[in-house]
């Protein structure tokens, strides 16, 4: 079989019955694998429909051309290997990415096999290529999940150690801040230290949220303030060719949210906008407004109920998003970026965060007119507890507190904090010794506060042992990171409260009073 015309002539000329040649011709034309027959120099003699479709060329356009040109092999070494394989009549394999203009890229696995006559002479070759795009996608997803798993493991270690470092910094700073005169230089310096500690805490929380997909604490958050802070960071990271603008219709607007995750939404949208406008001047605009949806308006969004919402809009003046791509942008790992430029996780993370906040996200785009993302978040009109934490006006007490943490620095800081709040504190650094002390006099304490990660005995194990001795003992468990014990599991053990480190003076003060005043 030496030409395209000859080969296809068999299929079209034999109409009487399905003889052997007819069956062969039909099978080769209709198989899903791409197939091309080559001469001994590597030039194409014949290509079936699948091979033509893979490369966006007709069989006539490929006939007589070298396979290396069709495959667009730019690597000289690979070209030499192909020529060497053809010259010696040996198989040759190669993986490539290709696609017709406007199509999504295909991953192809190609192998060239020698064809020998009855005497064993190398007379032609056949190139067979298989579309392995799905397999490549699965492998890519597996690699990404492995990276995320590694990130989660790393994040756990960072969270535990770093939060333990931040806690005494935050506690001691708050205590000093409470004693400093307002508007004094000391007050301003201490406030900056405290803000840095809180940003460190939020950073660890963001790593944990991404690496472990962990729901963070939701509290009343001023979304307007988060927008302003996020845009400050974006102005630093975005190229100067892009203008950033904000339009906040209200000076403050509250939602029950995780401020770190809202910041993550804006950073991801800003990063995508910057990439879309990387070769041009443009604008990235963020708008915030309060809206009220009636039943008809809410029905346009999946899962939304009528009521008060915040509408957060992020718009760019990039090239826009094609309709075929727009329908897939929230899929995990879907990306139009080149290899190494993005994982395809950014917008799927944004979508997940919005959904976890009981909100909705939509996108609109026209070619050449940029893209606009609209996010709706349930608005709260009475943001109780949303004020700044300044270490004053916190509830105090006089009860006896047993504090257990293997970190001496933690024990010293917490002893000072609890003493500042009026409590009488007894601290231990060894959980085994602490259990013996409690066993000797279970009624000597009104509250136990303990760490989760300790040598010889975890906080959960220690809490269980204490509750066997005194079942109604109020216990607060503190942790910087815990995979072994969740909040639900802690509650099932009888632990009254589960507190994440580093916590503020006000946070722990409120938890203590809530636990001590809770009826049995």
Notes on the structure:
This protein has 520 residues and is of the alpha/beta class. The protein has three domains: 4-131, PAS domain (Beta-Lactamase, 2-Layer Sandwich); 217-388, Histidine kinase-like ATPase, C-terminal domain (Heat Shock Protein 90); 400-517, Rossmann fold (3-Layer(aba) Sandwich). It contains 18 helices and 17 strands. It has helices spanning 4-13, 20-30, 49-55, 59-62, 67-71, 76-88, 133-179, 185-212, 223-237, 259-276, 295-298, 323-326, 346-356, 408-420, 431-440, 459-469, 487-493, 505-517; strands at 34-38, 44-47, 92-98, 106-116, 122-131, 219-222, 242-248, 254-257, 282-293, 307-316, 360-365, 371-378, 400-404, 424-428, 447-451, 475-479, 497-500. The protein has a five-stranded antiparallel sheet, with helices on both faces. The longest helix is centred in the first third of the chain and has 47 residues, at 133-179. Residues 13-17, 211-215, 339-345 and 385-392 have low confidence and may be disordered.
């Amino acid at each position: 079989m030496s030409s395209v015309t000859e080969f296809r002539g068999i299929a079209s000329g034999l109409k009487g019955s399905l003889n052997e040649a007819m069956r062969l011709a039909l099978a080769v034309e209709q198989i899903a694998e791409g197939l091309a027959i080559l001469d001994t120099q590597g030039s194409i003699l014949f290509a079936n429909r699948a091979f033509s479709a893979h490369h966006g060329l007709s069989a006539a356009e490929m006939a007589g051309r070298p396979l290396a040109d069709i495959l667009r092999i730019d690597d000289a070494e690979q070209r030499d290997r192909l020529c060497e394989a053809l010259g010696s009549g040996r198989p040759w394999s190669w993986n490539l990415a290709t696609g017709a203009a406007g199509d999504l890229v295909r991953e192809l696995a190609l192998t060239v096999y020698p064809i020998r006559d009855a005497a064993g002479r190398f007379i032609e070759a056949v190139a067979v290529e298989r579309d392995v795009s799905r397999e490549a996608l699965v492998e890519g997803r597996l690699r990404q999940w492995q990276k995320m798993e590694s990130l989660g493991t790393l994040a756990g270690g960072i969270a535990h150690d770093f939060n333990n470092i931040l806690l005494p910094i935050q506690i001691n700073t708050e205590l000093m801040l409470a004693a400093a005169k307002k508007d004094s230089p000391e007050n301003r310096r201490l406030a900056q230290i405290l803000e840095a500690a809180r940003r460190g805490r939020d950073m660890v929380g963001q790593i944990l949220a991404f690496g472990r997909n962990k729901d963070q604490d939701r509290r009343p958050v001023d979304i307007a303030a988060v927008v302003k802070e996020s845009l400050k960071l974006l102005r630093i990271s975005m190229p100067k060719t892009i203008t950033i603008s904000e339009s906040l219709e209200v000076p403050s607007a509250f939602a029950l949210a995780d401020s770190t995750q809202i910041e993550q939404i804006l950073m991801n949208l800003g990063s995508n906008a910057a990439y879309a406008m990387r070769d041009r001047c443009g604008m990235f605009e963020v708008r915030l407004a309060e809206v009220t949806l009636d039943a008809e308006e809410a029905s346009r969004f999946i899962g939304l109920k009528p009521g008060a919402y915040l509408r957060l809009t992020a718009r760019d003046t990039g090239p826009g998003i094609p309709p075929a791509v727009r329908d897939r942008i929230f899929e995990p790992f879907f990306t139009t970026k080149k290899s190494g430029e993005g994982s395809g996780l950014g917008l799927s993370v944004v979508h997940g965060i919005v959904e976890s906040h009981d909100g909705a996200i939509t996108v609109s785009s026209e070619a050449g007119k940029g893209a606009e993302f609209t996010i709706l978040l349930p608005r709260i009109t009475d943001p109780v507890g949303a004020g700044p934490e300044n270490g004053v006006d916190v509830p105090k007490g006089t009860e006896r507190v047993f504090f257990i943490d293997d970190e001496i620095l933690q024990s010293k800081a917490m002893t000072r904090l609890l003493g500042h709040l009026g409590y009488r504190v007894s601290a231990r650094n060894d959980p085994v010794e602490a259990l013996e002390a409690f066993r000797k006099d279970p009624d000597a304490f009104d509250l136990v506060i303990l760490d989760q990660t300790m040598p010889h005995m975890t906080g959960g194990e220690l809490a269980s042992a204490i509750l066997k001795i005194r079942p109604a003992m109020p216990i607060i468990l503190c942790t910087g990171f815990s995979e072994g014990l969740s909040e639900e599991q802690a509650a099932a053990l009888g632990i009254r409260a589960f507190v994440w480190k580093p916590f503020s003076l006000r946070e722990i003060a409120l938890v203590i009073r809530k636990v001590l005043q809770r009826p049995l």
